[in-house]
């Protein structure tokens, strides 16, 4: 018989303490105590108790037994952990107690009978301290029964217990089962049936004293009250069982076998506790006891294994341990806080010794620091001299008394020092008086080991980035392929749809034309005659197509009576295909008559013959006889059409229309392909100019840096910060300083052959896409030339790696063409398209004004909503000019005003929009590389992002562009302070406004980048507003046609054939200049000045070249009503005195502006100030020569043909116009005189100049490259 008894430790210490009065006793441990964490304090000691014996002759009748072949030499029973020689607890063989006698009924061999077993399993969690073996003395010396067969193993009790114990007091548990006398007698009977021999064979002492078995455990006593085990030698009713000298199991006044109840007839049992309480239990095939033990259906006492209870016990124990450790930790932190406060220290950490890969808590006494009045306290730090794992965390008010704030920081395993400062999230810092705070980390890497680790980590990181980049490129390429395929499919669908629509349209048109012709022919046939008395007749009377007939005409009957010649001009079927007959008439031979005739071949398939008589052949004749404008008609008698004719006619017309359509489509396609080729060629030329744009400072040979080859960099320090330095060092890397090889070793530059440049040679790796370099006076630094903190960058061609795309998000309130107010809208759209064309990702966040021009938005659809600022904000998505635009529509009505500006609360509206846009990025999970905001209207983005969102997107940088300094100076000034980089619209204008208070403190990050023009809008090759398309190849013909169309449009007289063509001078009408003027002058030039007119600091100058007033046109309107009124008065004066030479159009007229740009020979822009200026750029696009004042972007784009050759070459350009300095009439006259002289005296040279300016690229190609450089520079901030 086998019984398993499992001793379970209570689920928590609290439960043990709670039952001390009823069930448990706790004895203190009087040894020393050492605090050790829970996981390091627990060891597992296992004991197994097996009680074996013969039951008696009637045992088999009471209960069937299990068969087993246990042997001392066999493997260790399950749950028994044998000890090695090195362990403290030595295993000893215990002598038998009260010598057991064999039953007479015991079989003689193990084959016929096996010992019955009682197994009690429990596990005891012990401290690391060694346990002392204890041996109970023999009581009533055990003697072996002489009748016991030699083959029978002694009775065994294996005890395996697992009890979790705290180091310190040793707990003894006494579990007492209170039973009555009847139960005692039953227990005694059952114990006899179990067996009379108990052998503690597994190094145990079995002591049976007073009817109790003692199991002695060195560190705990487990007492079972009112119970006994089987029928061992009993002394005073108590049996003592000593196992391994480690635990005492006291079974008092009872028998363990009492626990083993027979299943038959037993349904319920109450286990009485010592205090009289009882718990009803259900029994079927298994019985569960109050101490957690179970008996199976065979009466075997089962103790649940440690594995089945481990999770529950461990959770409860861990919870208790955590609570204890939390309390200890809190007490220790309280003590540290008091100590530091008394010493006046504002900082401590817990634990005091920082170890790697652990969490620490940083405590900061705010009142002791410069942050004492700040509501927010943050910690910003890193590790290992700020080289590893940066962090920024907000501190919260701690539980400590006083002004202690705290946060938890994880110390990485690579750390040997923690560096940090405290700040308020803005600009107020506590950095330990400029020294920063630092705390050493013990037990981890040292500085040298970290340096080695960092090198390896950087290598791994770069390898990982390289793999990710390759994978990203693969995905991007796949995405592009899929998108390209999608576009191809869409184009094909669109082509099929268009073709189908074209077929339907042509078919309908053919049917309509056929019906119209049929009606006309029927009318003609009804009215047609074969002759008219005394005027004409035809012979023979019957004829058909391809027949030759004679048409006779009486010359004296009509207007040709005095003509020297007579001709017939004819066609057929109501002139269906135009003029097909032209024959000269001859006079008949009859005398006295004035009849003439001509032989004519009737056109094939003709139904009606049409003709007129004239005094000469086509294009020469001046006098006609057209039958009083009715023409002459005759029916072809043998060709009267049937129904099939009209069916065939309809098909003929349809085929003709289809052919014409295909020809038009082919022409459009060819034109588009040519335009695309010209754009690509222009872009390639611009890139080369970009590479040579600073040739006076730096350039390379070859100009195109090729991957896998050697490149030589030439540098002229004469105009840089290194001018005069004895040495210049070249420092280089690749891929925006991120290449896996890192920065190359600095090179001392050597003199080049030209004497002015220095040179250095670089091996360009195959995986490079960009070469980056700077110059310095020493190998280790000193004075640098880093291009104004932008660094020098040159693209690398032919590499194996492509540049990863940037993600740029524009936040703006103007965008052409959906909400264009000024130039800002053009810049947002055109710049975004140009950057996107360079394979970068661009998004635009825009208010959903109720005044948007949605005709230019494709695929507009509602996407989602989010809440912010006390209102719901709807997000719409659509495409504008191929750009992804997110429209924000707040339900508070801020953008439902019918306008963009002028609502009285614009600052509030746009401030709300800026914050809502950043919240949209945050909630949408966007982490752009660059957030680009424009002018005062979206300036709040700069500081709102830095104050509220930088922690969510730490890699994002803010770029701010000033388009107009006249509005919102406060907003612009604040945005300049917060932005990582700032720009304005030209280099010269950036210098001109450098003294502005909003700009001057931030010149280190302020750059000028020119605007460009949109080549799709301003393109003379694809301009529907000019008479003929032209390029630089036919610029003379194109401009001549445009000039004639402009004169016709204005109602000006055209020059006579003997005159040379007019000279047209145009000038911009805007708030800086005041007018757009076309001055048309005859060839005789006598300079004279009608007047100079200066209004409100704005130059207004009609130019006169007597002998009479020149033809002048003004186009545009002034936003200032006073200035607009001045122009109205001027227009009235000019109209009254010179109406046929002056036309002032004081409104916006886009078609006329295109015609003026194409028809003008010169463009005059005498602006007082001009940040960039698009007028001169657009004029050059159309081949007009600019005449400008040297200010702002005008100076940066127009290079005087007489004075600026060197300056133009420095920018990779040729001279392209005329400029002047003064803001007066003398300056204008000086430039205009030179321009007109060039036009008058050297027409071929002038035409070449027109061709040159058309071929220069003033689009967004170059500015986009400059902005990409700026974006990368911002990322380094």
UniProtKB/TrEMBL annotation:
The keyword Oxidoreductase does not apply. InterPro entries: CBM25, Ig-like_fold, Starch_synth_cat_dom. PANTHER family: PTHR46083, STARCH SYNTHASE 3, CHLOROPLASTIC_AMYLOPLASTIC. CDD domains: GT5_Glycogen_synthase_DULL1-like. It is an enzyme of class 2 (transferase). Residues 357-442, 546-637, 708-797 form the Carbohydrate binding module family domain. This is starch synthase. Its EC number is 2.4.1.21. Residues 79-89, 106-115 have a biased composition (Polar residues). The lineage of its organism: Eukaryota, Viridiplantae, Streptophyta, Embryophyta, Tracheophyta. It comes from Hibiscus sabdariffa. It catalyses: [(1->4)-alpha-D-glucosyl](n) + ADP-alpha-D-glucose = [(1->4)-alpha-D-glucosyl](n+1) + ADP + H(+). Pathway: Glycan biosynthesis; starch biosynthesis. Pfam families: CBM53, Glyco_transf_5. Residues 52-150, 464-484 are annotated as: Disordered. Keywords: Glycosyltransferase, Starch biosynthesis, Transferase. The keyword Magnesium does not apply.
């Amino acid at each position: 018989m086998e019984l398993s008894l499992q001793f379970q430790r209570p689920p928590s210490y609290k439960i043990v303490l709670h039952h001390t009065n009823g069930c448990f006793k706790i004895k203190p441990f009087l040894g020393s105590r050492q605090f050790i964490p829970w996981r390091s304090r627990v060891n597992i000691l296992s004991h197994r108790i097996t009680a074996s014996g013969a039951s008696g002759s009637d045992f088999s009748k009471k209960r069937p037994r299990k068969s087993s072949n246990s042997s001392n030499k066999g493997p260790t029973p399950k749950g028994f952990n044998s000890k090695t020689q090195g362990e403290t607890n030595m295993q000893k063989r215990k002598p038998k107690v009260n010598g057991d006698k064999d039953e007479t009924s015991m079989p003689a061999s193990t084959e016929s009978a096996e010992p019955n077993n009682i197994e009690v399993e429990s596990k005891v969690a012990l401290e690391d301290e060694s346990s002392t073996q204890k041996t109970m003395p023999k009581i009533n010396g055990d003697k072996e029964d002489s009748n016991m067969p030699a083959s029978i193993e002694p009775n065994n009790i294996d005890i395996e217990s697992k009890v979790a114990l705290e180091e310190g007091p040793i707990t003894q548990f006494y579990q007492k089962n209170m039973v009555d006398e009847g139960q005692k007698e039953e227990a005694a009977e059952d114990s006899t049936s179990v067996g009379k021999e108990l052998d503690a064979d597994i190094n145990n002492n079995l002591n049976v004293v007073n009817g109790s078995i003692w199991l002695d455990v060195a560190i705990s006593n487990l007492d079972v009250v009112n119970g006994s085990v089987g029928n061992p030698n009993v002394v005073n009713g108590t049996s003592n069982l000593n196992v391994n000298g480690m635990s005492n199991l006291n079974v008092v006044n009872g028998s363990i076998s009492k626990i083993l109840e027979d299943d038959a007839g037993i349904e319920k049992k109450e286990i009485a506790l010592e205090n009289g309480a009882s718990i009803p239990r259900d029994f079927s095939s298994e019985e569960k006891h109050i101490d957690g033990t179970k008996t199976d259906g065979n009466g075997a006492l089962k103790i649940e294994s440690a594995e089945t209870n481990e999770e529950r016990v461990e959770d409860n124990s861990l919870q208790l341990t955590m609570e204890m450790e939390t309390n200890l930790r809190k007490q220790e932190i309280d003590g540290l806080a008091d100590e530091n406060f008394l010493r006046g220290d504002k900082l401590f950490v817990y634990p005091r010794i920082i170890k790697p890969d652990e969490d620490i808590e940083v405590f900061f006494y705010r009142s002791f620091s410069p942050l004492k009045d700040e509501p927010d306290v943050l910690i910003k730090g890193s590790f290992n001299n700020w080289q590893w794992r940066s962090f920024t965390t907000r501190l919260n008010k701690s539980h400590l008394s006083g002004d202690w704030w705290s946060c938890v920081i994880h110390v990485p395993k690579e750390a040997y020092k923690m560096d940090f400062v405290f700040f308020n999230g803005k600009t107020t810092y506590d950095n330990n008086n400029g020294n920063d705070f630092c705390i050493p980390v013990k037990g981890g890497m040292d500085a040298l080991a970290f340096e080695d680790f960092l090198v390896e980590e950087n290598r791994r990181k770069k390898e990982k980035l390289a793999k990710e980049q390759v994978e990203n490129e693969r995905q991007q390429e796949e995405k592009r392929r899929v998108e390209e395929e999608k576009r191809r499919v869409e184009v094909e669908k669109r082509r099929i749809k268009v073709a189908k629509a074209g077929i339907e349209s042509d078919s309908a048109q053919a049917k309509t034309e056929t019906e119209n012709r049929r009606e006309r022919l029927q009318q003609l046939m009804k009215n047609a005659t074969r002759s008219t008395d005394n005027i004409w007749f035809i012979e023979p009377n019957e004829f058909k197509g391809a027949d030759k007939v004679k048409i006779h005409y009486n010359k004296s009957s009509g207007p040709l009576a005095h003509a020297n010649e007579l001709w017939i001009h004819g066609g057929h079927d109501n002139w269906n295909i135009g003029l097909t007959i032209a024959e000269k008439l001859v006079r008949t031979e009859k005398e006295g008559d004035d009849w003439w005739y001509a032989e004519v071949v009737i056109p094939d398939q003709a139904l009606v013959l049409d003709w007129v008589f004239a005094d000469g052949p086509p294009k020469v004749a001046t006098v006609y006889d057209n039958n009083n404008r009715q023409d002459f008609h005759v029916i072809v008698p043998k060709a009267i059409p049937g129904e099939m004719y009209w069916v065939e006619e309809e098909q003929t017309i349809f085929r003709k229309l289809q052919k014409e359509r295909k020809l038009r489509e082919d022409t459009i396609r060819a034109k588009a392909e040519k335009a695309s080729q010209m754009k690509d060629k222009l872009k390639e030329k611009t890139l080369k100019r970009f590479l040579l744009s600073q040739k006076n400072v730096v350039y390379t040979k070859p100009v195109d840096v090729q991957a896998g080859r050697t490149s030589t960099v030439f540098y002229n320090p004469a105009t840089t910060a290194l001018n005069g330095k004895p040495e210049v060092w070249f420092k280089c890397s690749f891929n925006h300083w991120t290449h896996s090889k890192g920065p190359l070793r600095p090179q001392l530059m050597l003199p080049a052959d030209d004497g002015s440049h220095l040179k250095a040679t670089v091996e360009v790796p195959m995986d490079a896409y960009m070469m980056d370099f700077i110059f310095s006076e020493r190998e280790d630094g000193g004075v640098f030339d880093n291009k104004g903190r932008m660094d020098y960058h040159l693209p690398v061609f032919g590499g194996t790696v492509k540049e990863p795309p940037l993600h740029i998000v524009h936040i703006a309130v103007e965008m052409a063409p959906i909400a264009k107010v000024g130039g800002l809208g053009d810049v947002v759209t055109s710049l975004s398209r140009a950057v996107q064309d360079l394979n970068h990702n661009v998004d635009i966040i825009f208010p959903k004004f109720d005044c948007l021009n949605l005709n230019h938005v494709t695929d507009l659809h509602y996407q989602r909503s989010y809440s912010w600022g006390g209102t719901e904000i709807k997000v719409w998505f659509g495409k504008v000019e191929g750009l992804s635009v997110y429209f924000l529509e707040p339900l508070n009505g801020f953008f439902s005003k019918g306008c963009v500006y002028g609502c009285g609360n614009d600052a509030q509206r746009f401030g709300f929009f800026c914050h809502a846009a950043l919240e949209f990025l945050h909630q949408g999970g966007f982490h752009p590389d660059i957030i680009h905001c424009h002018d005062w209207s979206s300036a709040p983005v700069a500081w709102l992002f830095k104050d509220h969102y930088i922690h969510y997107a730490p890699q994002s940088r803010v770029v701010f562009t000033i388009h107009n300094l006249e509005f919102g100076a406060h907003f612009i000034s604040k945005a300049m302070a917060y932005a990582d980089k700032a720009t304005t619209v030209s280099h010269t204008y950036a210098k001109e406004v450098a003294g502005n208070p909003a700009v001057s403190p931030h010149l280190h990050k302020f750059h000028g980048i020119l605007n460009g023009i949109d080549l799709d809008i301003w393109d003379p090759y694809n301009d529907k507003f000019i008479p003929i398309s032209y390029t630089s190849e036919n610029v003379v013909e194109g401009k001549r046609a445009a000039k004639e169309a402009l004169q016709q449009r204005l109602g000006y007289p055209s020059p006579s054939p003997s005159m040379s063509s007019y000279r047209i001078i145009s000038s911009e009408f805007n708030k800086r200049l005041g007018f757009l003027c076309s001055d048309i002058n005859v060839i005789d030039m006598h300079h004279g000045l009608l007047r100079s007119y200066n209004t409100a600091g704005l130059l207004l100058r009609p130019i006169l070249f007597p002998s009479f007033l020149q033809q002048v046109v003004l186009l545009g309107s002034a936003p200032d009503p006073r200035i607009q009124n001045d122009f109205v008065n001027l227009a009235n004066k000019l109209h009254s005195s010179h109406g046929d030479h002056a036309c002032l159009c004081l409104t916006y007229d886009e078609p006329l502006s295109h015609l003026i740009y194409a028809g003008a020979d010169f463009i005059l822009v005498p602006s007082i100030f001009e940040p960039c200026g698009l007028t001169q750029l657009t004029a050059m696009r159309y081949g007009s020569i600019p005449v400008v004042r040297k200010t702002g972007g005008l100076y940066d784009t127009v290079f005087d043909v007489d004075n600026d050759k060197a300056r133009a070459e420095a920018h990779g350009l040729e001279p392209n116009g005329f400029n002047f300095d003064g803001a007066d009439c003398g300056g204008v006259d000086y430039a205009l005189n030179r321009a007109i002289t060039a036009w008058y005296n050297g027409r071929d040279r002038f035409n070449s100049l027109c061709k040159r300016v058309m071929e220069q690229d003033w689009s967004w190609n170059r500015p986009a490259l400059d902005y990409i450089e700026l974006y990368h520079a911002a990322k380094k901030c």
